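Entry 0007
Protein: Inositol-1-monophosphatase
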Amino acid sequence: MPGTDLSLLVDAALEAGKIASRYSGKEAKRWEKPDGAGPVTEADLAVNEMLEDTLPAARPDYGWLSEETEDSTDRLDRSRVFVIDPIDGTRSFAEGSRTWAHSLAICENGVTTAAVVYLPQRDMLFAAATGQGATLNGDLITVTDTANLTEAQVLAAKPNLNSTHWRGGQVPDFGRAYRPSLAYRMALVAQGRFNGMLTLRPSWEWDIAAGDLIIREAGGQCTDRFGAPLRFNNPQPKLSGVVAGGQLLHTKLSAALNPDSSGIPGH
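Output (structure tokens):
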């Protein structure tokens, strides 16, 4: 089933790329969501409409969770569920950048079994299915690992370097880079271009469900900030951040983090 599901997601992602690419980011109509939830554009909504029409029709017994669809508790009664971000990196899209992605996943009993992260403007399609490895444009990819934090290249937003996040206030001296799309950051780790990534704030499931499987199938490890495996289709679809990378680096990063989240900014 994961292989068949993956073909379904790949086809849907390619169609999503065609739809989104018809819009010029800076000219696309844009609105701000309530409660500071960030922007949404007409491209997000057009992609979401296509996906919501297409995917559940192909798998009518699967549940549905998408950033751009009002959530329903119906999904909680389904063993399999689509977890979708029509456009991850909407701010980037609206600014006219190419660094945004479609993030599509299928999860079974809380675990991602098929996943696609597609960047149409960069012609990069990352994909994975359980037990089948991870690919970029059809070629197998694998993580690059290091046990030395000072040699590691890690994707992380600057607030993650606040000393309160780290054990004893000691921030590791790793190389830091950043990409606007969380799904893309995870895919880049799977590709081996960066050794790891982390985000220490609560994270929406649709941003990370696809990247989780792609990293694991590329030989890496992906957990929340406290070292617990990621589980999806929760009543509140938010998880306690993400720490990901090769096995050795993941161990080092996790050990360096402050295990007590109380009083940590943004947590």
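Curator remark: The two ends are 37 Å apart (CA to CA). Residues 2-20 form the longest helix (19 residues).
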